[in-house]
Amino acid sequence: MARMPVQFRLNGSDRAVFVEPAETLLGTIRRGLGDFAPKFGCGQGTCGVCTVLVDGEPRLGCLTLSVTCEGRSIETASGLADGPTLHPLQVAFMEHFAAQCGFCTPGMLMAAKALLDRNPDPTRVEVVEAIAGNICRCTGYEPIINAILAAAQQRGARRA
Amino acid sequence: MPVNVRIVQGLQEAAEILASDRGAQLLGGGTLLVRDLNEGVMTEGTLLRAVDPVLLAINTGGARIELGAGVTMAMVLANRDLSYLHAPARGIGGPAVRTTATIGGNLFAATPYGDFTTALLALDAVVTLHAGIGGARMMPLEEMLANRARGGVGLVASVGFNRPGGADAFRFLKVARVRPKGISVLSIAAHLPQNAGRISGARIAYGAMGPTPLRAKAVERVLEGRSLDATTIAAAKTAALEGTMPGTDAIASEWYRREVLPVHLGRLLAGETS
Fold it and tell me: Please, what are the domains in chain A?
C-alpha cells in the first residue's frame, strides 16, 4: 500500500512525513517523529495516555488517523516547557506529587492544558470532568486534581 | 491486503463505493473503527473518509432539528439550542473521545455503547440514507436499527427530529458504575409531551437492554393519556421489562440489568434524577 504524505505542525514546528494509510497519529508522532511523550496504553480510547491536542482540542492519538491531521496543529507534552522553564502545569504536578509511575502524566497534562486554555478558572467538578478520560492507577487522582487547580490559581495570579 | 484509506469529497461518491465494495466502511471519528484496527479486528479493506460539509451541518433554526452524521458530541455540547441532548452527549466517553465521536458512529455502536442513539430513538428520529443509487431516502431510526443487524443500511448522512416541547418534556438517564465516565449498565431516554396535564405521544427508549437501543412500547402504552402521578409511574415500572433482551457483559449481568431497570425508570419518570 502506497504511503501517503502528511504535513502538520508539531509543537510549533512544521513537519512533513510519509505515513501508512491507516497509521495512527500516535504511531506517527512516536515512531515517525521521535516524540515519545504520548504513550500507547489500551489502544481502545479508554486510558487517555495518548492524549494530544489537535487544534487545541484534546484527541486520542491512538484513535486518530494521521491522514486526518493534514494541516492541523498538534501539541504534545514535549512542547509544554519553554526551554528550561517548565509549564505551570508541570510545576504544579511536581509540587503536588501528581505523578508516581508517570505513565499517565503526559496525557493528564494535555487534558489539563485543554481545560485551562478554554476555562482558566475551573471548578473542582470541571477538573474531574476534564480528566475523566484519563486513567491513573497510582495517585488516586486527588494530587492530580489539586495540581490542576493550583496551576489555574497560579496562572490567574499571574494575570491579575 | 492491508487497510487502505480513501478520502472522498461527496456523499454520493462515498455511498456508491460502500454499495459496491463490501470491504469498505465509512470512517467517522474513528472511535470504533480505529479501535478495531488497533486490536487486529480489521486487517484489510478500505476506510472511507467523506469530507462533505453536509456531514457537519447543524440546523436548529425551526421546530425540525437536523444534525449531520459527522457532528461530534463536543459540537452538540457547544450548541445551546441542543441543551436537551447535552446529557446523552456528555455520557459518551471523556472529553478527548467527545471531540471525535460522531452521531453517525454512535448509531452503529454495539451494545452497551450507543447511549446517544437511545436519546435519538426517544425523539422519534429519522435518518437520511444514501445507498448508492437513487439519491437520499428517509428511514425511521427504529427501522434503521433493526436493519443494522442485517448489515448494508447504506450511508447515514443526517438525523432529523422534532424539537421536544418544553424543558421537562425530554429526560435522559445513564446508569454507570464509574463516574463521571463509565460504560452503561443501561440508559433510558423519555420524551413526554403533555396536553392539558396528560401525556400524549410518549416515547421511551432503552440502551443496553437489547442488541440495539430499543423502544419500550409497553411503557409508552401505559403512559398514554394519563397524568404522570404515582399510580401511573407504578404501572410503568410494572411494564418496564416487556420486550427487553439485555445481555451479560463485563459491566453488568442480564439479571442485574433486569432488576435495576424498573427502579431507574421510576426515578426518571418521577423527576428524581439529577
Answer: 4-79 (3.10.20.30), 88-159 (1.10.150.120)
Q: Are A60 and A29 in contact (CB under 8 A)?
A: no
Size of interface A-B (CB pairs under 8 A): 92
DSSP letters, A13-47, are EEEEEEE-TT-BHHHIIIIIT---SS----SSSSS
From the CB of residue B201, how many other CB atoms can be counted at a distance below 10 Å?
A: 14
User: Is 70 exceeded by the pLDDT of residue B152?
Assistant: no
Q: pTM of this prediction?
A: 0.94
CB contact under 8 A, B30 and A48: no
- Which residues, 6 or more positions from A158, have their beta carbon under 8 angstroms from its beta carbon? none
Name the nearest CA neighbour of A119 among A69, A156, A144.
A156
Residues of B contacting chain A (CB within 8 angstroms): 1-5, 7, 27, 29-31, 34-35, 37-39, 47, 49, 74, 93-97, 99-100, 180-181
Q: What would the grid cell of residue B88 be? A: 446523552
From the list A24, A43, A133, which residue is nearest B39 (CB)?
Answer: A43
Angle made by CA atoms B8, B13, B15, in degrees to the nearest 5: 110
ipTM, two decimals: 0.94
- Cβ within 8 Å, pair A132-B49: no
Distance CA B241, CA A21 (A): 46
Q: How far apart are CA A35 and CA B47, in angstroms?
A: 27
In tens, the pLDDT along A51-84 reads 999 999 999 999 999 999 999 999 999 999 999 9
